[in-house]
Hints:
Layout: E1 4-12, E2 19-26, E3 31-35, H1 42-49, E4 54-62, E5 65-66, H2 72-77, E6 80-83, H3 95-102, H4 111-120, H5 122-126, H6 137-148, E7 155-159, H7 167-182, E8 187-190, H8 194-200, E9 203-208, E10 211-217, H9 218-223, H10 225-231
Parallel strand pairs: 3-8, 3-9, 6-7, 7-8
Antiparallel strand pairs: 1-2, 1-4, 4-5, 9-10
Helix pairs in contact: 3-6, 6-7
Adenosine-5'-triphosphate binds at residues 13, 18, 36, 38-44.
Amino acid sequence: xxxxxxxxxxxxxxxxxxxxxxxxxxxxxxxxxxxxxxxxxxxxxxxxxxxxxxxxxxxxxxxxxxxxxxxxxxxxxxxxxxxxxxxxxxxxxxxxxxxxxxxxxxxxxxxxxxxxxxxxxxxxxxxxxxxxxxxxxxxxxxxxxxxxxxxxxxxxxxxxxxxxxxxxxxxxxxxxxxxxxxxxxxxxxxxxxxxxxxxxxxxxxxxxxxxxxxxxxxxxxxxxxxxxxxxxxx
Length: 234
Ligand SMILES: Nc1ncnc2c1ncn2[C@@H]1O[C@H](COP(=O)(O)OP(=O)(O)OP(=O)(O)O)[C@@H](O)[C@H]1O
Ligand SMILES: [Mg+2]
């Protein structure tokens, strides 16, 4: 059974559909990447999981449970962690306060989880009292991921975690993604850095104009000459 499945999803924000029958599945332990041109509907597909879209067709299931159209707060409570593409930290709050905010839906003791997050992201432990807005782009992205991971995650959704980062930070984020995945958390990630992300992914999907264009193992997509020319910058 897949952890998360978007099956034949159509829908949009206004009257016109942006997605036209998009299907994405993420299995236990997998890293799955979604690539495609600007405006292809990658972020929109992620928002669909959180009931933020008007759907005209399709179903979304989480570990077999139908969550189609469920409101965002409930989807988060079910263990779907999400790091949006932009504005994903509270800049004026400290690192520690950001993590605490990430735990707002928890009624149990979340302090041990904060320690686990610091172990996952050692640079954050040193900067726990600094404001998130003062950190480097890469470290801010770590805060965003750490905040999302404060709930007991069934799956982590990342929308362009390396956007705007220098190559060094980009590598650091991809290494972190691998590391989070190695703790048993499946990951669905949208990425512009197609080559690097396919290299860390088990499988990849290419979306174009709100439709599935192609899919396959990360390594196979990387080696496909036609895909390389069209989507990976040759
Ligand atoms: N909140 C919104 N309201 C109306 N239209 C939107 C909204 N967000 C996105 N769109 C439109 O939906 C289409 C798909 O946008 P989306 O953000 O999903 O693309 P994307 O594949 O994530 O692109 P990018 O690579 O630029 O992030 C675009 O035509 C965009 O203008
Ligand atoms: Mg996007």
